[in-house]
Write a structure and sequence with these properties.
This protein is α+β, with helices and mostly antiparallel strands. It has two domains: about 20-65, Nascent polypeptide-associated complex domain (Ubiquitin Ligase Nedd4, Chain: W, Single Sheet); about 75-110, Helicase, Ruva Protein, domain 3. The protein contains four helices and six strands. The longest helix has 11 residues, at about 75-85. The N and C termini lie far apart (about 70 Å).
C-alpha cells in the first residue's frame, strides 16, 4: 500500500467496510482517572468505524494534568456547621486545604 494516494486508500478502506472521518470543533478531551484528570486541549480526533465498532484516535495540541479531590458530603456539612458558613464556602475551603477538615475550619474561623 506504499505510494497509494489518499483517495485510493479511502476507496480501499470503504471496500473493506472501514469508515474514517475527522471530528470537527473538538476543543478538549478529558480523561478522568482516580484522583486526577488529563485534559487534552485542541485535539485532532479521528473516528474509525470497523464492522460497527468505533475507535477514536486523539492527537492533542497540548496536555494538562489536574489533581481531583473528592470531598465527602459529611465533611462539607461538618465544616459548614463548625465554621458557620454556607456550602459553597465550606467546599472551597476544603478544596484549598486538600480535604483537611481541621485546617479548613481554622482557615474559615480566622477570616
Amino acid at each position: 500500500m506504499m505510494g497509494m494516494n489518499p483517495r485510493q486508500m479511502k476507496k480501499l478502506m470503504r471496500q473493506f467496510g472501514i469508515k474514517m472521518e475527522e471530528m470537527e470543533g473538538v476543543k478538549e478531551v478529558v480523561l478522568k482517572l482516580e484522583g486526577k484528570e488529563i485534559v487534552l486541549k485542541d485535539p485532532v480526533v479521528t473516528v474509525m468505524v470497523v464492522q460497527g465498532e468505533k475507535t477514536y484516535q486523539i492527537v492533542p495540541g497540548s496536555e494538562e494534568v489536574r489533581e481531583v479531590i473528592e470531598i465527602p458530603e459529611e465533611d462539607i456539612e461538618l465544616v459548614m456547621e463548625q465554621a458557620g458558613v454556607d456550602r459553597e464556602t465550606a467546599l472551597k475551603a476544603l478544596k484549598e486545604t486538600k480535604g483537611d477538615i481541621a485546617e479548613a475550619i481554622l482557615k474559615l474561623s480566622g477570616e
